[in-house]
Amino acid sequence: MWKLMTGMRRKPGTSFDAFRDYYETVHAPIAARVLEGAAMAYRRNYVMERSFIYPERTDKDQVAGTFDCIAEVWFETREALDALLLRMAEPHVRSVLVEDRRKFIDESSICYMVCEERALPGRSPRHPTPTFHT
User: Fold this and answer.
1) pTM for the predicted model, two decimal places
2) Which of 27, 37, 62, 112 is at a distance of 20 to 30 A from 43, taking alpha carbons?
3) 82: part of which helix (H) or strand (E)?
């Protein structure tokens, strides 16, 4: 199982509620149209609480814990993920996605992570129900 995970912060001056509402009602439907047919599922995980193993850290504003959302896009194969990355690089698709995300996301905070999911030995990985609704 492969995932494209994207960490992001809201645009400065945007409240958390406004960020989440815009993402769910405007951006997620746009992204879902791009993902349809390529990915198994698309989920947004909104960070509601932050804690650190080492509370004495002074660089908390520079670590992943500052993300407001971590989006997950699930793929059955690496080839399916790569095909989506190519689609997202197409000029028209890219311009639609970038133009919209600039309205609510701090562009400098975006962090893309390509991940391969592994389950504990003897346990099968959880497979998501295909979901593209918002």
Assistant:
1) 0.81
2) 62
3) helix 78-89
Q: What is the pLDDT of residue 1?
A: 86
- For the chain, the residue count is 134
In a domain, 129, yes or no: no
Question: Can you give the residue range of the structural domain that contains 38?
Answer: 2-48+64-116
Residue 34 resides in a domain: yes
pLDDT averages per 10-residue partition of the chain, 134 residues: 94 96 96 91 88 62 73 94 93 94 95 88 64 50
DSSP 8-state class, residue 110: -
Q: How far apart are CA 34 and CA 91, in angstroms?
A: 13
Phi, psi of 75 (to 5 degrees): -135, 145
The owner of tokens 């959302």 is 69
Residue 75 inside a domain? The answer is yes
Integer angstrom CA distances of residue 12 from 71, 104, 123, 124: 19, 9, 42, 41
For residue 74, tell me if it sits in a domain. Answer: yes
* Predicted local distance difference test score (pLDDT) of residue 131: 56
